[in-house]
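FAQ

Q: What does a record look like?
A: Structure on top, sequence underneath. For example:
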């Protein structure tokens, strides 16, 4: 033991102070106390302060013992507490001031958070500490009865979702944030119905993918979208198996500038094909998808934009010969039902003859798999568009019988956000003050999202054996009038403000759409959410004779023949004259 040096009290104080200062500075730098943003300090930063102060006072105490052979325990404890309070307090006082005063503004909008789970708490904490947010969380709503009347971050849980209207009125809520990432579409629809009864603006937490990739932060809420309210869960297909089928191959997509075709291109590029050929008739749409794909994939995928019309048989064969694709996704088509009723020849030329050109070129140049994008309107068609899509199915089924190329078709319903979707029309009508035009209060349609439809098409390519018509199990059909009402509420209006007007069925429209008729249904799935239809096939000789005759007919005869063939009614005029010639 070191002998006592008999230092004076002043000497002991000076030595202890020097030791304390030096050791604290060393540990402060070690724990990076001078590199922390104390505006956002939390328990982690407080723990770092405690560690630095503890080690510094310990060294100071050991130094005192070394020089005087005496350790003042009470003094050391008091010193430790004083340092933690002063050093920690100085650093935390800015956060305390900001959270207690700066975040509270007279302009703040009272916000109700639906969901008192981890996501809801994260939202509340972010809003509380954010200087720029105008939203002030004042209450939680949660269906967990054990949380009722509890407080989280000093914010009370005031009831379950049935109390939304009551709470909004009582607390004068301006904004509602739905913060339950795991919420089912059905539950979301129910909650949104309650929220729409109030005058508060309703928003939803960004998708987890957007939060994780940094596209959006937790306090950048998005409006509830009509896709959120479809009333069914989005079908997630197992696209991992696709990578072996696509990676390193050449893929050709017709109609690549359209809503479905462009999304197929985006999905395909995730699996690193060697080359993707973008075929389309409209130069602007092809330019846009070409630029988008080049921005993200030009370093590892050869992207080839091609302007070409599928009605130009020679051009299609030239494209197929030049690029020799492994897979072809045929998305090019005329899809507008009433418009095709007025222009049946164009529907025949594009949907039938165009499909025939692309399919026969694919067979000629030994394409492995050909996937036709079909429609639910091909089932028992009452319109020209649906009948031409059924004809297109018949063409590829006929080719599949004796071809090395695997020809398949994929049927699905209406696609939200596509060019032909009713949603853009409704939005334009809302912007002009309404009313929204709905054909009939009982009209129903199947709906799906663009990514969902595209994944189905890609998945079908991996399941193809040849000749199949794949159909997505799309759940329950949705009433168009319900879709219209939801969109009005999502736009911040009431149905009474905008109004809904019933216009009656347009030319060629059906009240209800089908994905398979009663004679085509296979009960079992070949893949989760995917059926194969038992469709009838027309003899190839008869089919091609009909196709050759179509453009020589009058428009009335053409329409009658199309719909008769598509519905397997071969005893109707003018079919008999065509068949017997």
């Amino acid at each position: 033991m070191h002998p006592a040096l008999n230092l004076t009290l002043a000497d002991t104080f000076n030595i202890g102070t020097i030791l304390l200062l030096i050791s604290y500075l060393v540990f402060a730098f070690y724990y990076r106390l001078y590199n922390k943003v104390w505006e956002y300090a939390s328990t982690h930063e407080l723990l770092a302060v405690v560690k630095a102060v503890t080690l510094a006072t310990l060294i100071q105490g050991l130094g005192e013992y070394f020089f005087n052979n005496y350790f003042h325990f009470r003094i050391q404890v008091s010193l430790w507490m004083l340092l933690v309070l002063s050093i920690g307090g100085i650093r935390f006082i800015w956060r305390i001031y900001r959270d207690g005063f700066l975040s509270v503004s007279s302009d703040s909008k009272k916000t109700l958070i639906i969901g008192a789970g981890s996501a809801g708490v994260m939202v509340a904490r972010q809003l509380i500490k954010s200087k720029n947010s105008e939203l002030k969380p004042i209450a939680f709503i949660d269906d967990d009865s054990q949380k009722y009347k509890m407080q989280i971050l000093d914010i009370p849980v005031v009831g379950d979702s049935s109390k939304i209207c009551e709470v909004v009125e009582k607390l004068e809520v301006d904004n509602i944030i739905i913060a339950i990432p795991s919420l089912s579409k059905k539950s979301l629809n129910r909650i949104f119905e309650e929220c729409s009864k109030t005058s508060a603006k309703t928003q939803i937490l960004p998708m987890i993918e957007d939060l994780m990739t940094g596209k959006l932060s937790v306090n950048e809420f998005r409006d509830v979208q009509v896709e959120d309210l479809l009333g069914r869960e989005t079908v997630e297909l197992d696209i991992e198996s696709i990578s072996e089928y696509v990676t390193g191959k050449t893929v050709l997509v017709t109609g690549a500038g359209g809503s479905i075709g462009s999304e197929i291109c985006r999905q395909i590029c995730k699996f690193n094909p060697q080359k993707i050929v973008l075929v389309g008739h409209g130069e602007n749409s092809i330019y846009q998808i070409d630029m988008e794909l080049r921005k993200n994939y030009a370093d590892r995928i050869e992207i080839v934009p091609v302007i070409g019309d599928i009605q130009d048989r020679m051009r299609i064969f030239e494209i197929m010969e030049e690029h020799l694709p492994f897979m072809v996704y045929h998305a090019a088509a005329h899809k507008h039902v009433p418009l095709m009723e007025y222009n049946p020849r164009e529907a025949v030329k594009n949907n039938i003859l165009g499909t025939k050109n692309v399919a026969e070129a694919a067979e000629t140049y030994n394409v492995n798999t050909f996937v036709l994008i079909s429609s639910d309107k091909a089932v028992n068609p009452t319109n020209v568009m649906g009948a031409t899509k059924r004809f297109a199915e018949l063409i590829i089924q006929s080719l599949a019988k004796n071809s090395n190329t695997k020809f398949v078709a994929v049927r699905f319903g209406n696609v939200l956000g596509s060019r032909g979707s009713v949603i853009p029309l409704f939005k334009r009508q809302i912007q002009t003050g309404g009313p929204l035009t709905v054909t009939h209060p009982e009209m129903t349609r199947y709906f799906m999202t663009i990514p969902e439809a595209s994944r189905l098409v890609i998945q079908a390519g991996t399941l193809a054996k040849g000749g199949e018509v794949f159909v997505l199990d799309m759940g329950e059909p949705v009433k168009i009038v319900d879709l219209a009402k939801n969109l009005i509420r999502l736009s911040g209006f009431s149905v009474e403000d905008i109004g809904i007007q019933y216009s009656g069925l347009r030319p060629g429209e059906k009240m209800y759409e089908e994905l398979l008729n009663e004679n085509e249904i296979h009960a079992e799935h070949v893949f989760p959410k995917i059926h194969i239809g038992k469709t009838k096939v027309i003899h190839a000789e008869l089919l091609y004779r009909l196709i050759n005759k179509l453009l020589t007919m009058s428009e009335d005869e053409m329409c009658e023949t199309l719909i008769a063939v598509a519905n397997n009614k071969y005893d109707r005029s003018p079919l008999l004259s065509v068949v017997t010639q």
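Q: Is there anything notable about this one?
A: The radius of gyration is 34 Å.
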